[in-house]
Amino acid sequence: MTGMPSRGQVSFGDSPDTLPPFASIVICTRNRLEALKKYALPSLHALDYPRFEVVIVDDSSTDGTREFLSEYCQKFHHIKAIHNAESKGLCNARNVGVNNSKGEIIAFIDDDCAVSSNWMAEIVNAYTDKEIAVVGGVSYKGDTADIYINDKHVWGCNMSFRASIFQRFRFDTGLKYSHYCDETDLIGRIIAHGYKRVVARKATARHYVEEASYRKQLPLTAYLNYHYLNAKKGSLWGYYKYVATHSLKHAAIVEYGLNFKGKRRSPLSTGAQVIRKTMYYLYVFLLEIPISAKIKHAQEEKLFQQNAPTM
Asked: For residue 149, how many other CB atoms are within 10 A of its CB?
């Protein structure tokens, strides 16, 4: 590998004799060492791209990931590992990866993804316009010909950004209720501010969707993430109206099916459970989500305004 350039050193679309942009590939992992060893790492060793680094963010794993990576990174100097002392979720881990990347392009794959050998080259080649800030590839379900989710949008298991965009945008750590929506929120904000997103159809990955602590869902967690996004983007009046007419009822139906339907409970136990759940959802829906969402929205707009584009 050649030396690591500073961000912005190489211009996209230079003559063929110019070195291709240096790229950083970020993998966020937690307690999924076997997937990392089986899928992501072998495919990255087969990449047909001359200038890249791999940044692995170990989000406080307890399955031997830290020990494995400590030895592994000594063998492969273009791979480095960042170990979080405390797990703070996927969005935080992605931001840690960004902070420790040196590339002009920062790409993300999951630890249970295997990318094609031309993946990085196809990603880089898709940045044909300086207004393009996001490029994603096409992901397949394991070894099948079936598309993972769909191929019209950019998904977190196969996505990339111009590094300079992170001067104005970051993954929102307020999306804490589940792993859903991190890329949806970030890419949506980037596009809303005038940048472009494209899908490089030849930048393919195979997503084997291994079980993970990030993906384990408690009841309604993804639902709460969507509420957080709606509160951040829309009016508080519209948010509270939807909560009053739909959300509280939906939460009650789900909790009833999980904790009460067909189960024998004492009146005292039932009453205590109902009070506890009611207080929790009233607090989350009426206070925690709207307040934190509006504060975060103001912070995001301030970050955008303070940092002039460098692309």
From this structure: 11
C-alpha 185/C-alpha 38 separation (Å) is 30
**In 3-state terms, what secondary structure has residue 66?**
helix
Report the alpha-carbon distance of residue 73 to residue 60 in Å, rounded.
Answer: 17
Give the residue from 195, 223, 226 showing the smallest Cα distance to 293: 226
Rounded distance between C-alpha atoms, residue 114 and residue 43, angstroms? 5
pTM: 0.89
**CA distances from residue 173 to 89, 99, 135, 238, 248 in whole angstroms, order as listed:** 8, 15, 22, 23, 24
Each residue of 136-188: pLDDT tens digit?
Answer: 999 999 999 999 989 999 999 999 999 999 999 999 999 998 888 999 999 99
Give CATH for domain 23-207.
3.90.550.10
> Residue 28 in contact with residue 55, Cβ under 8 Å?
no
Residue 112 corresponds to which tokens in the numbers above?
């249970």
DSSP of 126-139, one letter per residue? Answer: T--STTEEEEEEEE
Query: In residues, how long is the chain?
Result: 311
Domain ranges of the chain: 23-207, 221-306
* Residue pLDDT, tens place only, 181-220: 999 999 999 999 999 999 999 999 999 987 665 555 567 8
pLDDT number for residue 9: 33
Q: 50 — phi, psi (to 5°)?
A: -80, -20
- HSE value, Cβ hemisphere, 13 Å, CA-based, for 38: 11
State how far the alpha carbon of 302 is from the alpha carbons of 164, 197, 305, 308, in Å. 17, 23, 5, 11
pLDDT at 6: 35
